[in-house]
């Protein structure tokens, strides 16, 4: 028996690839007036965790972090990338994005939310509660990434805490809001397709 069902492996692979492409092409960085970019690279990790559980979110976060580390080491685009050659900055914080997102999602959506990972069917819960759970997952996952990465940059002395605090205030809320909106839209559309088509085709490949 496989460690993960085929569907979970497929979802993890696709979302990991999306996160990596967003990072390599810089499409995952949205210019912001504060001078720094708003990143959405964490969104595939959040979506994967909500749809397929914390282990899948952990795997996507791991691949996201490793990609960030390798890109910083092999093809840096600026002086900040030097910091991301440290795995405690580029990898470790990303491991927690998925589990935190999933936990917040389950806490608000309740036990019925587990039906989302059984296929493409939307959980049998109130639409408002379901939307709130997705928004919470998006906010929590993004803030986990922001807080842990910036904290690691300060702990390892790459930037002064005053600058880190400014970036956190200027970028953190915006990144969290954007992540929440994208998570809500993507997961709602994904589960909506499942409601119209019935059981996911990928689920037929499961053991």
Model description:
- The chain is mainly alpha-helical and 207 residues long.
- The chain has one domain (6-205): Arp2/3 complex 21 kDa subunit ARPC3 (Orthogonal Bundle).
- The chain has eight helices and two strands.
- It has helices at residues 6-24, 43-52, 54-74, 87-90, 92-95, 97-109, 127-155, 161-197, and strands at 29-31, 37-39.
- A two-stranded antiparallel sheet has the order 1-2.
- Helix 1 (6-24) runs antiparallel to helix 2 (43-52).
- The longest helix is centred in the last third of the chain and has 37 residues, at 161-197.
- It starts with 5 loop residues before the first helix and ends in a 10-residue tail after the last helix.
- Mean pLDDT is 84; it is low at 115-120 and 199-207.
Question: Layout of SSEs?
Answer:
Blueprint: H1 6-24, E1 29-31, E2 37-39, H2 43-52, H3 54-74, H4 87-90, H5 92-95, H6 97-109, H7 127-155, H8 161-197
Antiparallel strand pairs: 1-2
Q: Would you summarize the structure shown here?
A:
Helix content is 66%, strand content 3%.
Helical amount: 55-70%
Based on the structure given, which CATH architecture is correct? Orthogonal Bundle
Outline = globular
How large is the share of residues in beta strands?
under 5%
Number of strands: 2
Strand order of the largest sheet: 1-2
Q: Report the end-to-end length measured between terminal Cα atoms.
A: 7 Å
Order of helices and strands: HEEHHHHHHH
CATH topology: Arp2/3 complex 21 kDa subunit ARPC3
CATH class equals Mainly Alpha
The major sheet is characterized as:
2 strands, antiparallel
Number of domains: 1
């Amino acid at each position: 028996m496989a460690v993960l069902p085929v569907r979970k492996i497929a979802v993890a692979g696709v979302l990991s690839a999306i996160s990596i492409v967003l990072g390599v092409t810089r499409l995952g960085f949205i210019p912001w007036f504060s001078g720094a970019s708003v990143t959405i690279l964490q969104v595939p990790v959040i979506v994967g965790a909500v749809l397929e559980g914390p282990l899948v979110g952990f795997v996507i976060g791991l691949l996201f972090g490793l990609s960030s580390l390798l890109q910083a080491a092999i093809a840096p685009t600026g002086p900040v990338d030097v910091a991301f050659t440290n795995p405690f900055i580029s990898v470790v914080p990303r491991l927690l994005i998925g589990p935190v997102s999933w936990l917040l999602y389950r806490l608000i959506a309740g036990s019925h939310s587990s039906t989302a990972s059984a296929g493409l069917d939307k959980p049998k819960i109130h639409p408002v509660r379901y939307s709130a759970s997705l928004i919470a997952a998006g906010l929590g996952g993004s803030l986990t990434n922001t807080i842990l990465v910036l904290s690691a940059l300060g702990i390892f002395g790459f930037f002064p805490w005053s600058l880190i605090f400014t970036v956190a205030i200027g970028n953190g809320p915006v990144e969290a809001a954007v992540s929440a909106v994208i998570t809500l839209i993507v997961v709602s559309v994904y589960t909506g397709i499942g409601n119209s088509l019935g059981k996911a085709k990928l689920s037929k490949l499961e053991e």
